Amino acid sequence: MSYVKYEQKGFIGTITIDREKALNALNSEVLNDLEAVIDSISIDDTRCVIITGAGQKSFVAGADIGEMCNKTRAEAEAFSARGNAVFRKIEKLPIPVIAAVNGFALGGGCELALSCDIRIASENAVFGQPEAGLAIVAGFGGTQRLARTIGVGKAKEMLYTCCKVKADEALKIGLVNAVYSSDQLMAECEKLAGKIAANAPIAVRATKKAINLGLQTDIDTGVQIEAAMHASCFETQDQKNAMTAFLEKRKPEPFVNK
Ligand code: DAK
């Protein structure tokens, strides 16, 4: 039985981490199943992915503490590398990924949300990096992506104090883009995914690549990356369709990803 479910509705794929009894904590099997699902996504048929957790209480309550407890230093290094490899695949997935954070997003759960492009939370969402209280360092990218997302000072506060950040504060500090009631969360994430999916897929993918690669480099290299991504959209069927439609004062035909 897989701990990760995948559902496709039109151009939108939804991944559900399904280990509700353990609040969707990430053990090795969950990570393997998550990677298998990520690997199976077809970017020809999918324009946006949503990741959420099963149930109403938890997105992901972290890496599995039972599995980690007795690890040796070498085993911990391997586990961290495993999680990092899977999260990096999510971050580098060519299409946008939305985290629908429906409850606890602690430790590896907060880190999973951070590997997504956009985070949308339910009102009962709680974020945190409790690792220092468990006498370890965050191991799935938290020290890196949290600082890049909410700024160094606030990230250090969260990581040093292990404080819990509720949805309203997460919104204030830029950790999430929006907050909805639990029963509205998925519908709102699907609406957002639908808006992304309605735009030209080649352009959206090139935009993601330009932002992600550009954030890791200096501005001169960054604008060169952007120029290359910009140019890559020309001569596509979708670009001709959209610009011709503008000039003819009409709506473009639906984009065809070509
Ligand atoms: N691992 C394993 N089981 C977990 C879990 C977790 N992270 N979180 C919850 N569970 C399980 C509980 O053990 C319980 O199982 P049973 O006792 O029913 O068998 C079930 O889920 C329900 O949890 P509770 O009974 O505790 O539910 P409550 O509503 O009372 O509390 C809670 C919910 C989320 C506040 C609480 O469960 C909690 O504090 N959970 C732990 C949260 C946490 O500390 N998460 C961060 C884990 S550390 C690294 C690699 C990775 C990482 C670090 C280093 N390297 C190898 C270097 C990442 C670290 C983390 O993510």
| Strand segment tally | 10
CATH homologous superfamily title of the largest domain: 2-enoyl-CoA Hydratase, Chain A, domain 1
What is the N-to-C order of secondary-structure elements (H for helix, E for strand)?
A: EEHEEHHEEHEEHHEHEHHHH
Average pLDDT number: 98
Distance between the termini: 37 Å
What is the CATH architecture assignment of the largest domain? Alpha-Beta Complex
Radius of gyration: 19 Å
Bound molecules: 4-(N,N-dimethylamino)cinnamoyl-COA
Question: What sort of overall outline do the alpha carbons produce when their principal axes are compared?
Answer: globular
What is the count of distinct domains? 2
Query: Which CATH class of the largest domain is shown?
Result: Alpha Beta
Question: Helix proportion of residues, in percent?
Answer: 40-55%
**Largest sheet features:** 6 strands, mixed
Sheet with most strands: strand arrangement: 1-2-3-5-7-10
Structural class: alpha/beta
Could you please describe the fold and organization of this structure?
This protein is α/β, with parallel strands linked by helices. It folds into two domains: 4-197, 2-enoyl-CoA Hydratase, Chain A, domain 1 (Alpha-Beta Complex); 201-247, Lyase 2-enoyl-coa Hydratase, Chain  A, domain 2. 48% of the residues lie in helices and 16% in strands. It is built from eleven helices and ten strands. Strands 1-2-3-5-7-10 form a six-stranded mixed sheet, with helices on both faces. A four-stranded mixed sheet has the order 4-6-8-9. Helix 9 (201-214) runs antiparallel to helix 10. 4-(N,N-dimethylamino)cinnamoyl-COA binds at residues 22-23, 25, 61-66, 76, 79-80, 83, 104, 106-108, 130-131, 134, 136, 138-140. Keywords: Lyase. This is short-chain-enoyl-CoA hydratase. InterPro entries: ClpP/crotonase-like_dom_sf, Enoyl-CoA_hyd/isom_CS, Enoyl-CoA_hydra/iso, Enoyl-CoA_hydra_C. Pathway: Lipid metabolism; butanoate metabolism. GO terms for molecular function: 3-hydroxyacyl-CoA dehydratase activity.
